[in-house]
Inverse folding.
């Protein structure tokens, strides 16, 4: 005997399941985007450390900032971030916090995000180059992971003295700065100049000591969702 189900029964469950699937998909998209930004930042800093480029002062870094950025070698990494970023930005634009974002801006988000990424990468590279120089002058190892950690922290918050011992890479914040800031057309040059000033004043010896004094189990720098 087959029992007839009541009309509409099961729809709430299917709707709830669809919402859960959509939320899980959104989280995966955001996680992939943050991971791509992290890979881009790592490659950008590594290329500086492997090159002959040196930045010995904040003034020199600012002068180089004013020049044309050459990020051709990172084009594939940048394009990957753009491809992952555009759908995320468009989804966020439909939310309450972004209802006032002009749709013409969202339509051109791929271009604006690409520009922001190329600019941001160059800014991070110059900050990283100055951090590496400061470590060299202090006579300590310019560990690529430490350079990346210090450069990102200074870039995101020039007024705050970075603490290498906390072991966090704030890739979530870096993603928002580059991707959402890029979609909204925000200029990052002023903060980058302040970050160069902060890098010039960095106590490199103390930073290195804090880094090497971390817990022995900390074999890698964990990512932070901040």
């Amino acid at each position: 005997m087959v029992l007839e189900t009541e009309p509409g029964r099961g729809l709430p469950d299917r709707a709830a399941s669809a919402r859960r699937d959509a939320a899980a998909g959104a989280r995966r998209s955001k996680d992939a985007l943050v991971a791509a930004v992290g890979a881009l930042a790592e490659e950008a800093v590594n290329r500086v450390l492997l090159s002959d480029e040196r930045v010995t002062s904040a003034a020199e870094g600012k002068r180089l900032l004013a020049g044309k950025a050459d990020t051709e070698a990172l084009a594939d990494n940048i394009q990957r971030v753009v491809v992952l970023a555009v759908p995320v930005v468009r989804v966020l634009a439909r939310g309450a916090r972004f209802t006032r974002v002009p749709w013409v801006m969202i339509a051109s988000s791929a271009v604006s995000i690409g520009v922001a990424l190329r600019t941001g990468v160059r800014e991070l590279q110059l900050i990283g180059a100055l951090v590496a120089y400061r470590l060299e002058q202090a006579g300590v190892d310019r560990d690529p992971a430490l350079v990346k950690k210090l450069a990102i922290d200074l870039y995101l918050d020039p007024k705050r003295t970075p603490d290498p011992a906390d072991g966090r890479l704030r890739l979530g914040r870096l993603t928002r700065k580059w991707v959402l800031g890029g979609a909204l057309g925000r200029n990052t040059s002023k903060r980058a100049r302040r970050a160069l000033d902060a890098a010039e004043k960095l106590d490199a010896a103390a930073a290195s000591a804090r880094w090497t004094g971390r817990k022995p189990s900390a074999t890698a720098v964990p990512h932070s969702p901040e």
About this structure: The CA atoms of residues 9 and 193 lie 61 Å apart. The chain has a mean pLDDT of 82. Residues 11-50 form the longest helix (40 residues). The chain is about 65% helix and 0% strand.
